[in-house]
Design brief:
By secondary structure, the chain is α+β, with helices and mostly antiparallel strands. It is about 35% helix and about 20% strand. Helix 3 (about 100-110) crosses helix 4, helix 4 (about 140-150) packs antiparallel against helix 5 and helix 7 (about 185-190) runs antiparallel to helix 8. About 25% of the residues are buried.
């Protein structure tokens, strides 16, 4: 799962500033998710990129985008990132989904906002991002994106934690009966707004099956330790 720092609808460029490896168990209805820090230094397989090596992991996506063209393998940025993940960690991603800023904002607004419960207040000196009080609150798409971007005076791991809170909030909203019935139409509405190797029919079928039987307590979200 990738979130890029770019709003071009054609996904021509973009750094993978949000990277999650997720394993979905459809038998036990569990999700295990690991956040990979965007600044993690990684090695690329020899002869697969025309760019610097080692590289930051968020660049492993950028180099494979259509506008950059620095990846010598097949596919786009998601494929180049997957190859680097496999080379460094021995994990082979089987599918991908990529979203940009605009899609995140529009999707959260389409489901009526997202509820988060912040363990502490969050403040950014930039008026564009602003501040958030501690406790429960419902955020619009614009405000949810702002929260997920803040790291000034904090750290990237702090930002990753807030991103996970928003992601869980989105899942929780989608699991509510009133929203769950709208999932197929939402997927069709946003079919051109994100990148994935799965068809809309596959996403709708898997999504309805999963969301209708999932409990957020069965989701394990982990972060790479800072000292790594």
């Amino acid at each position: 799962l990738v979130g890029i720092d770019y709003s071009d609808p054609a996904y021509t460029y973009g750094l993978a500033d949000v990277i999650r490896l997720a394993r979905v168990d459809f038998v036990e209805m569990k999700v295990s998710m690991v956040a990979l820090p965007r600044d993690l230094l990684v090695e690329a397989p020899a002869g697969r990129f025309t760019e610097q090596n080692p590289m930051k992991i968020n660049q492993a996506y950028l180099f494979g985008t259509p506008g950059w063209g620095g990846y010598l393998g097949e596919g786009i940025g998601a494929n180049s990132l997957a190859e680097v993940i496999r080379y460094n960690f021995g994990v082979t991603p089987q599918h991908y989904a990529v979203v940009n800023f605009e899609t995140v904002v529009r999707f959260i607004n389409a489901i009526g906002g997202v509820e988060v419960n912040l363990p502490q207040g969050v403040y950014d000196p930039s008026p564009e991002l602003g501040s958030f009080p501690a406790g429960r609150q419902i955020l619009s798409g614009e405000r949810a994106l702002a929260l997920m971007r803040i790291r000034t005076n904090y750290s990237d791991s702090f930002r990753v934690s807030n991103q996970t809170l928003v992601m869980k909030g989105v899942l929780n909203k989608l699991m509510q009966p009133a929203t769950l019935v709208k999932v197929p139409s939402l997927l069709n509405r946003f079919s051109d707004a994100f990148l994935t190797d799965l068809s809309i029919d596959q996403l709708a079928s898997l999504g309805m099956c999963f969301l209708g039987n999932f409990n957020l307590e069965s989701m394990k979200a982990a972060q790479i330790p800072n000292d790594l």
